[in-house]
Design goal:
It is built from 2 helices and 6 strands. Strand 5 and strand 6 form a beta hairpin. The longest helix is centred in the middle third of the chain and has 16 residues.
């Protein structure tokens, strides 16, 4: 299992109101009412022994032209940060932690509200 797959497993049903995508979402007319959960892996430190650190960046968006989605997006980002504090563990994940608080609100050129949140995963091999 890759680190990003393990992270998606951890997300589970925490974000049912959002459409998950790896990397940035792609705007199209048929996705106007979609709320996006964009996930991608960013560089982290070198492995140490049998452990490696992986950084995961998450962007949660509201629907296009829907500023009223701000509260849902903000609360979801806050909840993901809190859930990481519960010290989730699996056979390959030693720890998931939020790297600070969610950042936002920001607005895309399509007028989607969005928040960003970064996580660090400690993987055991």
């Amino acid at each position: 299992m890759t680190p990003i797959e393990a992270f998606v497993d951890w997300l589970g049903d925490k974000v049912t109101e959002f459409t998950p995508t790896r990397g940035l979402w792609v705007e199209s007319q048929d996705m106007v009412d979609a709320r996006w959960l964009s996930i991608w892996q960013t560089p982290a430190g070198a492995p140490s022994g049998d452990a490696a650190r992986v950084n995961i960046r998450v962007v949660l968006t509201g629907r296009r032209q829907a500023p009223e989605d701000m509260i849902l997006v903000e609360r979801t980002a806050q909840a993901l940060g809190r859930d990481a504090i519960d010290n989730y563990r699996t056979a390959c994940i030693a720890n998931i932690r939020a790297m600070g608080l969610p950042q936002g609100p920001f607005y895309s050129t399509e007028n989607r509200v969005y928040y960003e949140l970064n996580f660090e995963i400690l993987m055991r091999y």
